[in-house]
Batch of 2 targets.
Target 1
Amino acid sequence: MTSPHVESGPFDPAGVEWKPVSPRLATARLATCAITLGVPAVAGAVAALWSGVAGLWAVPVALAALLVWCVVLVPRQVRAMGYAERADDLLIRKGILFRSMVVVPYGRMQYVDVQAGPLARAYGIAQVQLHTASPGTDAAIDGLPADEATRLRDQLASRGEARLAGL
């Protein structure tokens, strides 16, 4: 899938074909938001009902507003995430308002691992974590389908070994 952006700049290098992360990442993140914000909102509403204190309604209303904000924001954030494999490096981009792009040369990678918690496994997604010699340049690609995460881990590890062997 090619990037829909026509512009070329620091976040959209020319000729780069971006691969999106799985849309199931949005569902997993929304489930987390529902648990962390929805459950306390319901508890706050029950407390406000039982106590009869009108001021207590501010808590569930604020939590519900944050939950609505998550429902709007999270899918956009996930759509903005992507990665691209080039001949000598891997590009990772994310962000809507605060955009970032990380370029990781294959020769700088020390090891690559795949992680998935219980919620991620339930949605069939995983995170590929890249570790380099400098902790500040470690990068992660969250929300990859499990088979793509495995493929990418093996591909990056072999490219990294090839680049190190050539030094």
Note: Residues 1-6 have pLDDT under 50 and may be disordered.
Target 2
Amino acid sequence: MKIQVSTELLDGCVLALLAEKDYYGYAITQRIQQTIPISESTLYPVLRRLHKESWLETYDESFKGRNRRYYRLTKAGTKQLGVIRNDWESYKHNIDWLLKGDNHG
């Protein structure tokens, strides 16, 4: 079954991943694809938008003669991750309530 992932949820996944450690773009895609079926073409616009929102910052490091662009969570990004996590808990609770059938009455 495929459930479409909202923009906000994908933002939260990227921010949560970067709360663990810094990653370069392809590695972020690989990690998220372990859980959610997304393409690189989906993820890079998300990274650009999160950077524009000042939730991420970037830096380059050399790797085998090429530069890799790494992404790091900012303080504003950490705060936004907290907002998304709170929203997710409420949303998840409400969906569980509906899907588990505990709503009789």
Note: The CA atoms of residues 17 and 23 lie 8 Å apart.
